[in-house]
Amino acid sequence: MQQLIECVPNFSEGRDMNIINQITAEIEKIEGVRLVDVDPGKATNRTVVTMVGTPNEVLEAAFQSVKKAQELIDMRHHHGAHPRFGATDVCPLVPVANISMEEVAQLAHQLAKRIGDELGIPIFCYEAAATNDERRNLANCRSGEYEALPQRIITDRWKPDYGPYVWSEQVARSGATAVSARNFLVAINFNLNTTSTRRANAVAFDVRERGRNQVDVNGKNMLDVNGNPIMISGTLKHTKAIGWFIEEYGIAQISMNMTNILETPIHIAFDEVCAKAAARGLRVTGAELVGVVPLEAMLEAGRYFLRKQQRSTGISDAEILKIAIKSMGLDELYPFEPKKKIIEYYLQQNNKKQLIDFTLAAFVEETASESAAPGGGSIAAYMGAMGAALGAMVANLSAHKRGWDERWEEFSDWAEKGKHYHNQLLKMVDEDTNAFNKIMDAFGLPKKSEDEKQLRSDAIQAATLNAIEVPLKVMQLCFDSMDVIKAMADIGNPNSVSDAGVGALAVMAGVKGAHLNVKINAASLKDKTKAQQLMSTAADIANRAAFLEREILASVERKL
User: Is-catalytic flag, 432?
Assistant: First the structure.
């Protein structure tokens, strides 16, 4: 499987779009890399760039963008609201798919060494790429910001990991760069109904993990026996936050970096910031996501707010996202566009159009065309998806039924199960067509030599086995979804019992249709023992599904 990493360089220029465009143009030149997001900030004078791609290509794009930033940005004249110490201030690498953090840390050192050696920029490695514990924290590496670099890089303690450790005119111009391997970081700004940076900072210190300095009765920072500041920890683990005033919006914000959204999710941070702001007489009016965010983080936020409303969470992803966006005010400052802000959706763009992306009419017309695919297998999967969706619909209607308020969670759980099955079956619509295409590709392989004939024969058999396993999975998913449909026929909203009956008929059609595809492909499998085993499994699913269909329809008939 293809490895993917993300790189999120932050450049110390947020006002001159000519400079920003020249830097991002270097990224767009590299094949195999997608420029996901470019987010300039005037007040911070900083641009956050997000790119995703295969490891070697991302490293090349990152290097070229750092090189261009070194040419165009002079740190001797830079000022902005955000902490910084270099033209390319930070350049973190993030694992996205099929790659470990350890592997990404090695890539980070590879990139850091190349930047240090070829561009002569002092490099500090932090987080998972750190060379010692003190350097794991970016704030330690960047302490004192650009202005402190001349004194710091010449010391043994803060000698750069790569690149020069003397202050020269070239280093004065470029500053230093921090390179890391880290978990997916979510950058989010919370909008406040105040213009006071001091009050925004007070809330930021309340919540950020590091917290604030403990002070004595005279307002002086208290120190421990070793002379280190005594800190009062904030309430949100894995967060860093500061307050600032954003002139372009005329409001103060709390700018937060979230380094572990599994342990501290976005929605929990939002509610906590709201609570701490309210305790200080302030109100959070909305939030602003910088860069991109994982889909699951947004879906979990939407489900969280739905549960607070005692509403079903088994609704479409689009509806769940709408709840998340509105609940956190992510569209207060400008429209929140999921296709641009959610990383999975962005990466799907410009990919080959799938069957499930077609309109209903277009799908029917494509099926009716002279092409052999989509065929019966894809239609069977689609019928199963529609049947499972009807089960989910009855569950959602039951969760929302007047007088059944105390049962909302029970039906929400059933709706979630129904949604799982119809989502999986939708994926199988294209999987079945892909399986057919693999058989056609195998038959198209050359067969001139004996070796070519053997390779072709092996490829045909492998593709045939796949073309059996795909509809077999469709059968199993359709059968499993009948559990939801039966429950809805038995205990769901009686006004929708006929919908449960139609759902049972649809998924049974999916079972029968997929069974036919198992049979026709099993006949071409040379391994007859394997073929018989698969046929036996399919027959068992079909028999159990037929029994359950009769039970569901009997339950429906009793209530009509």
Answer: yes
